Amino acid sequence: MGSKTISLDDEAYKRLKNEKTGNESFSEVVKRLTRPIKRKSLLSFAGTLKLSSDELEIMKTALNDLEDNSMICLDSDFMISLLRGNEEAKARAKKLEDESKEVVSTAINALELYVGIVAVDGISGKKIELTRDFLSNLTILPLDGSSAERSAYILNTLKKIGKPIGLKDSLIAGIVLEHKADILTRNIKHFELVSGLKIETW
């Protein structure tokens, strides 16, 4: 079998070298990596998965679970109502605990809550201490680069179609979507405009 000489830049050489296993030659590496994929006929798989009725139900349940996000983000309206002792909010909080979902909020919601409490109680009163204690029990999702980019897209997209929801709600929606969470809110008017955002109410 004849041979050919080829030129590789340093980066390509390093990548090819890293693919080598054992005493494999460069020619053997190239042949392995470029080996044609022999695909079987789809019909050859027909009827090969034998499932009982119970196993089928287990699969269906598992697939349905994929549709239910295990993370729920508390919007500011819910947090304020819960802290004030609203009975509907308390009932929903109990349900969240029963569902064993991870309960989170966003840095924007934490800011909204702090702004309101500081306006009422300053930075050293009992209400601010209670607020700190409450938020410390939640995972606070940050506004990072990816969330900021997604939020900017939401903000500008809705503005272009004449249905702006404002900066704060765009930021909240972007963070929630980036972390693949649902949002628990009564602000349906704004959040239902955000494509892909799953909303729960109370």
Task: Please give a structural write-up.
By secondary structure, the chain is an alpha/beta fold. It has a domain of 128 residues: 3-Layer(aba) Sandwich (Rossmann fold), CATH 3.40.50. The chain contains 10 helices and 5 strands. A 5-stranded parallel sheet has the order 3-2-1-4-5. β4, α10 and β5 form a beta-alpha-beta unit. α4 crosses α5, α6 runs antiparallel to α7 and α8 packs across α9. The longest helix is centred in the C-terminal third of the chain and has 16 residues. It is elongated. The model has no long low-confidence stretch (mean pLDDT 89).
What's this, in brief?
The protein has 202 residues and is α/β, with parallel strands linked by helices. The chain has helices at residues 10-18, 26-33, 53-67, 76-83, 87-99, 107-121, 126-136, 145-160, 167-178, 188-191, and strands at residues 71-74, 102-106, 139-141, 182-184, 199-200. Helix content is 55%, strand content 8%.
The Cα radius of gyration reads: 27 Å
| Low-confidence residue ranges | none
Total count of strands: 5
**Helical run tally:** 10
For the largest beta-sheet, the strand count, sense and barrel status come to: 5 strands, parallel
Identify the overall geometry. elongated
Order of helices and strands: HHHEHHEHHEHHEHE
Strand content: 5-15%
Please write the CATH class name of one domain.
Alpha Beta
